[in-house]
Amino acid sequence: MNNYNKFDQVLRYSRQGQVASAIELLKGLLADEPNNAIYHGTLASCLLQQSRLHAAEYELKIAMQLAPNEPFLHCISARIYYLQNKPNEALAACDNALQLEPGNVEVFELKSDILIANKKYKEGFSYIQQMA
What we know:
This protein is mostly helical. About 80% of the residues lie in helices and about 0% in strands. α3 runs antiparallel to α4.
């Protein structure tokens, strides 16, 4: 199986909740391509699904050094900040992601969630309306 097919399998595993299997495949992919920012970012995302915040931060740091303008990575950064109860940093990361990819619905949803969780209801609901 080539790396493209393996990564496709990683995404399937992740969506199906088989995060441990996704992580194992990602480790193999990173052994072949240690400088692949998307692999590191995806690993960070999987680690977040397992509530392994520090490990996710580590992988994200590597990914951001490799591809600082990748919107997907800024979205993961926002999720990490959100879980760390750092709403201002989380919102800034969302804004960075939206600047790089203005139509990213996942980021709109995340930003809305962060705003609503921090009692900024009017602003949070305006983001929900923008998605419609």
